[in-house]
Design goal:
Chain lengths: ~270, ~280, ~280
C-alpha cells in the first residue's frame, strides 16, 4: 500500500513548488495538448527537454519519476503485442515464425510510449509539487467563471479537498482491516471463488461502515464549526499570480505554438 | 516453547522517501503461559513487534520463533494458516472487522476459515460468545446494530473462537468505559489462567499492575527493559525514569514513604496497604 | 448567570426507547463541569443536543440566555464549541493552519485578519511550530489541540469536550488536560467535559452523573463521591483515595472523605499525630 507513488505530493521546497496552482494546472493542460499534436520526433525532443528541465527545477529525483512509471510497463508490453498483431504496414523488420513485425507497429508503439511517458512526467510535475488543497483552490478558481451557469465551484472544491484529505486515512484503514481479517484466516491471494468473495466482503463491509462513521463525524465537526453549505464564506487562501507564474504560462504557450508550427506550417 | 525474537529488524517503505525503521535488532524472549505487557510511547514499535507474532509482518532481517515455526525475512512461513489459528491477534478497535449479517456468523468466520465444519464452527462460536458474556439472544442480531462495547466483545469472541494458544491484544480496552474495560480484563485474566499465553500492548499502567506478570518496555524500536511486574513496580523510580505515571497504589506508597511510613515493596493491593498503615498508626498511639 | 440550562430534555434515536429522558440540569457560567456515566448512558447524546447537532424530541435547551430552536441554530453554534472524540475525523483542513482557518471562513472573518487570529490561537495550544504540518504528521494529542485552537478562534462562550481524550495515549491525554486546566484558569470560558477519567472529574468544579439517559447524581465532586453507596449503585468507579479510605476504615482508621491522594495522605498524617 505504501508503494503507491503516482500522484502523491512530495513536500520539498523548490521554485516549482512555489508556483501558483492555477498557473501549473494551466501549463499542464497546454503541455498535454502539445503532446497530442503530431509534431514528430523533434517536437517530442523539445517537450522532453522542457519537462526534464521542470523536473530538475522541482528537485524531484528521477528515480522517483521512474518508480511512478513502473506500473505502466505492463501496459506498454501489452500495447506492443497488440500493435504487432494488428498493424501490418511499413516494412517487415522481424519475422518470428508466423508473426511478422512491421516497422509501423514498432514506431506507433514508440509514439504511444513516449506520449505516455511525457504525460506521466507532466502530471507528476503538477501533483508532486502542489499540495492537494492548493490544487483544489486552483480548480475552484478556474471553475469560478462557470458558477453563472450553475456549477457549484466552491462545493466541488470542498468535496475534492475533503476526499483528498481522507485518502491517506482510508488507505491506512484498508491496511488495518486487511490485517485484522488475515488474522482471522482470510487468504486474499489464494482460495476458491466463494472464499474469495467472502474475503472481499470481509474487507469491503467494514470499510464502508467506517467510511460512513467518518462521514458522520466529519459532518458533525463541520456543522459544529459553523459550516453551512451554499452560504457565502470568506477564504483564507487567496491565490495571486506572480512573475514566475506568467513565465511558466508563457513558456507553455510557446511550446504549444512551437508544436503547431512544426506540425502544420513547416 | 517460548516466543523468541532474534536480531529482528523491521523497516517500512524501504527505498522510498518515507522509509521508517520501526524495529531495530530486537532480541527478546517471551515466556510461554505468561501474561506479558508490552508498553512504550506511541511510535516505539509495540504494534509492529506484535504483528510479527502471526506473520502479518515479516521481519526485514532476523528471525522470530513462535511455537515450532520460524518467521524470517522475505518468505511466508510454512503452515501460515495454522500459525494464524494458534496465534490470535486482536487489533485496536477490533469492532471495525465485523462484517457478517449475524453475530454468530461473524464469530464463526474465523474457525470456518481454518477448516472447521459449519456445525463445529457454530459450536466454537457459541462457546466464545459465552466467554465474552454475550448470551444466545445476541446470536441472530446484526453485529452492526450493537453498542460499542458489545461490538468489541463480538470481535474478541471472533478471535477466541479460533482457540488460539497465544493471544495477542493491541490496546484491547481503548475507548471502553471503566466498567467495560474491567470486565474485558477479567476475561483475559481467566484465559491466561486456563493456560493461554497472553501478550498485551497497552498504555494503562493500572492494568499492567493488576493483571500482568511480565513487562517489556519498547523505546525507539528496541526493548529497553524486560522484567517481571514486581521488579518493575517495586517503587515509582523506573516509571518516572520512563516518564510513565505509576499506578495509584505505587504513588500512594511513595507518598506514605515520604511522610516517614514504612511500606513493604511486596504490597500490591489496597487491603494489605491499609493493614500496614493501621499497624503503624496504632503503634504510634 | 447560567451558561447552559437544560429542562426535561428527551431524545430518541429510534422512536421507541429514549436515549435521553427528562434530563434537567444547569451549568454555571465560567465553571468547569464534567459529565460522567457509562457508554450508552446518554452523555454524548446530551452534548449533541446542546449544540443542536441532534434535534430534541421534547424539553428545552437554553444556551447563554438564548433558547435553542431551528431558527437560531447558527447563532447558538457561535456560542458553543465542541471537541469530539476522534482526532482524525474532525481535522478538516489539510494543514494545521487551514484547519484553524476553516471556522473563521465560515464566520466570514475578513481574510486579512485571519493570520493574526490563527497565530494567536495556535500559540494558545502551543502548536505554532506545526502550523504548516499535515494531520498525518501529527500525534493524536496534537490533532486535538488543533481542534481546540480551531474552536477557540471562533470565540465561543462555552466549550464542550466530548470524550476528547479517550482515544489518546497517556501523553496526549496529559496535553489536553493541561490545555483544559489552563483555559479554565485563564479565561471566562464555561467548560463542559464528558469523560471517563476519574482524575479529571475530581479536579472539576461540578459533576453530573448520567445513567440510562437520566441524571443519576450531581454536585461538586466532593458532594457526589461522599455518597459512596450511591456511586457504587450506579456502577461508577470510585477515586483511588476513597477506596483507600474504605480499606483504612475497615482497619479502624476513620478519616474524613478526601477525594485526592494528596488530601488523603495529609489527612492520615493529621490523624496519626493527634493520637
Amino acid at each position: 500500500m505504501d508503494n503507491i507513488t503516482l500522484g502523491r505530493y512530495i513536500p520539498l521546497d523548490s521554485p516549482v513548488h512555489r508556483l501558483d496552482p492555477r498557473a501549473k494546472i494551466g501549463a499542464m493542460l497546454l503541455m498535454l495538448i502539445a503532446i497530442f499534436i503530431p509534431a514528430g520526433w523533434i517536437g517530442y525532443a523539445i517537450i522532453f527537454a522542457v519537462v526534464t528541465f521542470m523536473v530538475f527545477l522541482s528537485k524531484l529525483s528521477f528515480t522517483y519519476i521512474w518508480k511512478s512509471m513502473k506500473p505502466m510497463l505492463f501496459m506498454l508490453v501489452f500495447l506492443l503485442i497488440i500493435n504487432v498483431l494488428v498493424v501490418h504496414t511499413g516494412t517487415v523488420w522481424l519475422e518470428l515464425g508466423p508473426i511478422k513485425v512491421y516497422s509501423d507497429a514498432v514506431i506507433q508503439t514508440l509514439y504511444i510510449v513516449v506520449r505516455l511517458l511525457l504525460m506521466i512526467m507532466i502530471t507528476t510535475c503538477l501533483t508532486a509539487t502542489t499540495k492537494p488543497l492548493d490544487m483544489t483552490l486552483g480548480i475552484e478558481d478556474l471553475l469560478q467563471p462557470f458558477e453563472k451557469i450553475g456549477v457549484p465551484s466552491h462545493e466541488i472544491a470542498m468535496l475534492i479537498s475533503i476526499a483528498l484529505r481522507f485518502i491517506p486515512d482510508l488507505i491506512d484503514e484498508t491496511g488495518r482491516i486487511m490485517k485484522a481479517q488475515e488474522s482471522r484466516g482470510v487468504d486474499l491471494k489464494e482460495g476458491k471463488l466463494n472464499e474469495k468473495i467472502m474475503a472481499i466482503l470481509s474487507l469491503i463491509v467494514p470499510l464502508f461502515v467506517s467510511a460512513f462513521q467518518r462521514a458522520e463525524d466529519l459532518a458533525n465537526a463541520m456543522e459544529a464549526r459553523g459550516y453551512q453549505p451554499g452560504v457565502r464564506r470568506t477564504r483564507y487562501k487567496v491565490l495571486k499570480l506572480k512573475g514566475p507564474d506568467y513565465l511558466l504560462l508563457a513558456g507553455a504557450v510557446l511550446v504549444l505554438a512551437c508544436m503547431i508550427w512544426l506540425a502544420y506550417f513547416k | 516453547m517460548p516466543i523468541r525474537f532474534e536480531k529482528v529488524s523491521h523497516v517500512y517503505s524501504d527505498g522510498t522517501p518515507f522509509r521508517y525503521v520501526a524495529l531495530e535488532d530486537v532480541d527478546l524472549e517471551i515466556r510461554e503461559g505468561a501474561f506479558t505487557a508490552v508498553i512504550g510511547q506511541t511510535g516505539s514499535g509495540k504494534s509492529t513487534l506484535v504483528q510479527h507474532l502471526n506473520a502479518l509482518l515479516l521481519p526485514s532481517s532476523g528471525t522470530v520463533y513462535v511455537m515450532d515455526r520460524q518467521i524470517i525475512a522475505g518468505t511466508e512461513p510454512k503452515k501460515l494458516k495454522s500459525l494464524r489459528k494458534d496465534v490470535g491477534l486482536v487489533f485496536q478497535f477490533p469492532e471495525y472487522q465485523l462484517f457478517e449479517e449475524t453475530v454468530l456468523k461473524d464469530v464463526a468466520f474465523g474457525p470456518k476459515n481454518f477448516g472447521a465444519s459449519p456445525e463445529e464452527a457454530n459450536k466454537l462460536a457459541r462457546e466464545a460468545l459465552r466467554k465474552t458474556g454475550l448470551d444466545e439472544t445476541f446470536e441472530e442480531r446484526s453485529p452492526l446494530e450493537l453498542s460499542g462495547g458489545q461490538k468489541r466483545r463480538v470481535a474478541i469472541a471472533g478471535i477466541l473462537a479460533m482457540k488460539p494458544k497465544v493471544l495477542v491484544l493491541d490496546e484491547p480496552t481503548a475507548g471502553l468505559d471503566p466498567a467495560g474495560a474491567k470486565k474485558m480484563m477479567e476475561l483475559f485474566a481467566s484465559l491466561h489462567k486456563e493456560g493461554t499465553t497472553v501478550i498485551m500492548v497497552t498504555h494503562d499502567m493500572e492494568q499492567v499492575f493488576r493483571y500482568c506478570e511480565e513487562v517489556i518496555v519498547m523505546e525507539n524500536g528496541k526493548p529497553k527493559i524486560q522484567t517481571d511486574i514486581k521488579t518493575f513496580f517495586r517503587d515509582s523510580s523506573l516509571c518516572r525514569e520512563l516518564n510513565i505515571l505509576p499506578p495509584a497504589l505505587i504513588r500512594m506508597k511513595d507518598a506514605l514513604r515520604e511522610k516517614g511510613y514504612t511500606v513493604s515493596d511486596d504490597t500490591v493491593d489496597i487491603k494489605t496497604l491499609a493493614k500496614e498503615i493501621a499497624r503503624q498508626v496504632k503503634s504510634h498511639g | 448567570m447560567k451558561a447552559v440550562e437544560v429542562e426535561k430534555l428527551t431524545f430518541s434515536y429510534d422512536q421507541e426507547t429514549n436515549a435521553v429522558e427528562d434530563v434537567t440540569f444547569s451549568i454555571e457560567e465560567g465553571s468547569y463541569t464534567t459529565i460522567i456515566g457509562h457508554n450508552g448512558s446518554g452523555k454524548s447524546t446530551v452534548a449533541k443536543l446542546i449544540t443542536g447537532l441532534l434535534e430534541k424530541k421534547s424539553g428545552k435547551v437554553v444556551i447563554d440566555g438564548l433558547e435553542l430552536n431551528e431558527d437560531n441554530l447558527y447563532e447558538i453554534r457561535k456560542r458553543v464549541g465542541i471537541v469530539f472524540q476522534n482526532p482524525d475525523n474532525q481535522f478538516i483542513g489539510s494543514t494545521v493552519r487551514d484547519d484553524i482557518a476553516f471556522g473563521l471562513e465560515n464566520r466570514c472573518i475578513p481574510q486579512e485578519n485571519m493570520d493574526d487570529i490563527i497565530n494567536e490561537f495556535a500559540e494558545k495550544v502551543r502548536m505554532t511550530k506545526y502550523l504548516d504540518k499535515e494531520p498525518t504528521r501529527l500525534s493524536g494529542g496534537q490533532k486535538q489541540r488543533v481542534a481546540i485552537a480551531g474552536i477557540l478562534a471562533m470565540k465561543p462562550k462555552i466549550l464542550i469536550f466530548d470524550e476528547a481524550t479517550s482515544m489518546l495515549d497517556p501523553q496526549g491525554k496529559d496535553e489536553i488536560k493541561k490545555v483544559i486546566r489552563n483555559l479554565h484558569k485563564d479565561s471566562t470560558l464555561t467548560i463542559i467535559s464528558i469523560t471517563h477519567d476519574i482524575e479529571e472529574v475530581i479536579h472539576a468544579d461540578y459533576v453530573i452523573a448520567l445513567r440510562k439517559g437520566h441524571v443519576a447524581m450531581s454536585g461538586t465532586p466532593q458532594e457526589l463521591f461522599a455518597d459512596t453507596d450511591q456511586v457504587r449503585k450506579i456502577h461508577l468507579e470510585l477515586p483511588f483515595a476513597l477506596r483507600m479510605q474504605e480499606a483504612l476504615a475497615r482497619e479502624g482508621i476513620h478519616l474524613g472523605k478526601e477525594i485526592t491522594m494528596e488530601g488523603l495522605v495529609e489527612e492520615l498524617c493529621r490523624y496519626d499525630s493527634k493520637r
